[in-house]
Design brief:
The protein contains three helices and five strands, in the order E-H-H-E-E-H-E-E. The chain is of the alpha+beta class and about 140 residues long. It has a five-stranded antiparallel sheet, with helices on one face. The chain is globular. The mean pLDDT is about 90. This is Histidine kinase/HSP90-like ATPase domain-containing protein.
Length: about 140
């Protein structure tokens, strides 16, 4: 691991933008992958943080969200953990199915899976790990 970051964020959606900016700024070893980092990683992390704050912690200002980032030459991974009871990600409706188009749930998870190379939930469902790999992806 080239660099590790650990953040404890207040359960306040206004802290998301600053946290995403801070983490992305520390990914200097990934600068040749700036496009994927600035789009895929930013959106994926933003979705994970908002899900943790709004759904996981149920917007409770007494709770916090832990962010653990591992920056390597070939990938960046981030684990977002809330203090909620968790959920079963397999029960979230697929937002691309016609029956679910108008439902609000599932879009964040769908986006994370579409933009990241790996999305894994822990057994309890209160922690998600996102991985963005860089091998063979170098573009100007």
């Amino acid at each position: 691991v080239d660099q590790e970051l650990i953040l404890e964020l207040p359960n306040d959606i206004r802290s998301i933008e600053h946290a995403v900016e801070y983490v992305t700024r520390h990914c200097t070893s990934c600068c040749e992958y700036a496009r994927r980092l600035n789009l895929n990683f930013r959106v994926g992390l933003t979705e994970a943080l908002s899900n943790a704050m709004l759904y996981g912690n149920n917007s409770d200002p007494e709770k916090s969200v832990r962010v653990e980032v591992a920056i390597k030459l070939e990938e960046v991974s981030v684990r977002v953990t809330d203090q909620g009871v968790g959920f079963d990600p397999t029960t979230v409706p697929d937002p691309t199915l016609p029956a679910n188009i108008s439902k609000s749930g599932g879009r964040g998870i769908f986006l994370m899976k579409a933009l990241m190379d790996e999305v894994q939930f822990n057994d309890r469902g209160n922690s998600v790990t996102l991985v963005l790999r860089f091998e063979g992806e170098a573009t100007a």
